[in-house]
Task: inverse folding
């Protein structure tokens, strides 16, 4: 694996700490923004604002995608790191509702727009960069390595709040401790920027630029030549992102809102899911190189659908060991599909960032990914604690079917 791939991927880990630490502080952010609401309603309101902010992703990527496909990947990757650091600093300083009233949730929504722009500029451009810097026959394994580092960023974003929560009293963490978790993101975002300043452009981009083969209008080219791929990849990425939120991000909120676990215990359960996902995601990419992406991804989705209800039953029992078993039960099959989808994504478009961004971090996550947290919390409130499992079954079934729409190979030459 080349130095460029390793440094770019490690930078992705640092950036994704910056943009995901908010996910593990939602109950406390909700209390700060909506001090007159109960905890469940505060979390619901915060999730609604977070999902609304992520609707801005397609707009941000409509600008950064064509720029990266015409002028290079390096400046956009470096800019995403700085934006993530700046946004994390503002989240840490966000005033509460008691201080500035209605302006607090409005500011929060504005910050989620900036955060969505940072995440959307970072991913899947990182996957495009590493795919363009590695041999075609190893594309599955190398893009899975990039995904692995993104999951490490999620793990770091969970581990630091977990340590803070264990060190502080509940009132201290609720009052100010959750803000401290954003501060390392500032330093990590700046470090990622410095690492990326020294990266060269990807081999494929340099070759296309030298040959005068860069598209003058990347967005128009996607609309004109890749509409079929766009729909298929949107479904695939949408299901991966929804499954990711429902198997790794949501269980921490689920067990916390059920009042059967402390916040530290809830975060520890989520950490077990992330460790499982990280352990399996590279295997998924390597298997796709050997067996083909379709069979590996479909197997992961079908197992996810089959195990969703038993997993949520275990998580709702009020036992830490059973909750661990439940989150591992769904994270393991998801790792197969999550290890494949980025290679599929970057292999489906000639203008890789514009095409991929308009699906992965744009439309797909805005429609299927971020709203899944809100939908799951509403289902728990209105239909009972096992209702999100039914949603996850649906996600697994649609994900498995969507693999039939995608191409068989992830190893075609990039051009």
Result:
């Amino acid at each position: 694996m080349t130095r460029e791939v390793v440094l770019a991927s490690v930078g992705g880990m640092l950036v994704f700490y910056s943009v995901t630490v908010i996910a593990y502080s939602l109950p406390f952010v909700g209390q700060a923004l909506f001090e007159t609401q109960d905890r469940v309603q505060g979390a619901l309101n915060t999730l609604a604002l977070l999902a609304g902010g992520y609707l801005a992703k397609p707009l941000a990527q409509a600008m950064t995608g064509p720029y990266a496909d015409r002028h290079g990947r390096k400046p956009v990757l470096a800019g995403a790191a700085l934006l993530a650091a700046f946004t994390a600093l503002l989240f840490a300083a966000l005033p509460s509702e008691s201080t500035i009233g209605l302006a607090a949730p409005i500011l929060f929504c504005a910050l989620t727009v900036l955060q969505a722009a940072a995440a959307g500029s970072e991913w899947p451009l990182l996957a495009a960069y590493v795919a363009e810097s590695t041999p075609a026959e190893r594309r599955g394994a190398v893009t899975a390595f990039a995904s692995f580092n993104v999951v490490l960023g999620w793990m770091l974003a969970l581990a630091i709040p977990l340590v803070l929560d264990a060190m502080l009293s509940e009132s201290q963490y609720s009052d100010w401790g959750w803000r401290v978790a954003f501060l390392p993101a500032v330093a990590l975002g700046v470090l990622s920027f410095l690492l990326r300043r020294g990266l060269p452009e990807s081999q494929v981009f340099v070759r296309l630029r030298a040959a005068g083969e860069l598209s003058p209008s990347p967005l128009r080219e996607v609309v004109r030549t890749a509409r079929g791929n766009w729909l298929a990849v949107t479904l695939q990425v949408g299901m991966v992102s929804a499954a990711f939120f429902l198997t790794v991000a949501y269980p921490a909120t689920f067990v916390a809102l059920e009042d059967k676990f402390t916040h530290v215990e809830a975060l520890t359960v989520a950490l077990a899911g992330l460790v499982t996902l990280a352990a399996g995601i590279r295997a998924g990419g390597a298997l796709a190189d050997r067996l083909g992406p379709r069979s590996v991804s479909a197997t992961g989705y079908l197992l996810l659908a089959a195990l969703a209800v038993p997993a949520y039953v275990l998580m709702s029992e009020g036992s830490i060991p059973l909750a661990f078993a439940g989150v591992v039960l769904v994270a393991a099959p998801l790792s197969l599909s999550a290890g494949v989808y980025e290679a599929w994504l970057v292999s489906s478009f000639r203008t890789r960032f514009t095409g991929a961004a308009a699906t992965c971090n744009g439309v797909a996550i805005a429609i299927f990914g971020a709203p899944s947290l809100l939908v799951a919390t509403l289902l728990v409130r209105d239909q009972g604690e096992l209702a999100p499992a039914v949603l996850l079954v649906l996600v697994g079934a649609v994900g498995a079917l969507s693999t039939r729409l995608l191409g068989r190979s992830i190893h075609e030459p990039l051009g």
Observations:
- The mean pLDDT is 80.
- Residues 227-257 form the longest helix (31 residues).
